Amino acid sequence: MSDAALARARWRCRRGLLELDLLLQRFVDHHYADLSDTERIAFERLLAFPDTELLELLQGGGEAVNPELAGIVTTVRRHSHPRA
Question: Residue 4: how many CA atoms within 13 Å on its side-chain side?
Answer without folding.
Answer: 0
